[in-house]
Amino acid sequence: MRSITLITFLILLIQFSKAQTADAFEPLMESKVPVEVRETFANQHPTAKVEEWREFRGRFEAKYQADGEQMFSRYNDEGLFIEDRILMDWNKAPEKLKEGKEKTNKKYWEVVEFYKRIADNKEHSYILQLESDKGEVSTLYFDKSGELEVKSKSGY
Fold it and tell me: Could you tell me the sign of the dihedral formed by the alpha carbons of 58, 12, 26, 112, in that order?
């Protein structure tokens, strides 16, 4: 009985840890992506070639290159556009964003990934995926002026 309880606990712990990773989107075969999502992407980015489709909780993400940058476009299951994310170099981040991070309790955490997020209304903001020296993961969201909006342990 004890070993069954321990195994159940370990399975739940693994699942919880997976949900707390910086990016919970899982790779998906293109044939599993709704037609509406693929059509919307093709209309928005007619020359782009999707490197990988991913899915998380009914949201779909296309990973592709555009103008030499790594891009991610997100859609709901009906093909409605949610946002674009551009993977950026933290060393080239706006100074106001770096100053904003320094004001948080995560100022000593390493920036693992840095994204410029462009919403459907064309407003932009920033996402920092961070890791502590203990391996803890956190995500910080900043507005376009470098002010902290939200803190999260998951990337979603």
Answer: positive
